[in-house]
Amino acid sequence: MKAVRVYIDTSIIGGKYDTEFRKPSLRFFEQVKQKRFHLIISALVQEEIAGAPEHVRIFFDELKPNATIIEITEDALKLREAYLKAKIVSKKSSNDALHVALATINNCPIIVSWNFKHIVHYEKIALYNSINILEGYQQIAIYSPLEVINYE
Description:
Number of domains: 1
CATH class: Alpha Beta
Helix content: 40-55%
CATH architecture: 3-Layer(aba) Sandwich
Largest sheet: 5 strands, parallel
């Protein structure tokens, strides 16, 4: 079976060290190692991780060799602006919108995130996808690790 391309935001990397999210995060990363998922990581995640504690940065560095790193492009910035104009999130949360834009622009079928406020929320998902359609992009599935890991 071919690995599913999955865009991860910064919350997934930190989730490994969060008491609430640790078990499903570890299971998700086990399944990455088993090649069930192929990670798509953006330069934005790299920027956000730069200020994280050392153990998080070390874990991130361990993920990078088996991931595809994508750059922030003008098209992604334009799509983020469309999300902001639609008031899906405020300017203060523009990086969250940029994560969705980067995944969309790079044809990732799935975003995996622990960010329930600005990304993994049923109202936000519908709004992101409506803007994607209006802007000529595909819809994107947005899930937490709990919804994509294999439980068998």
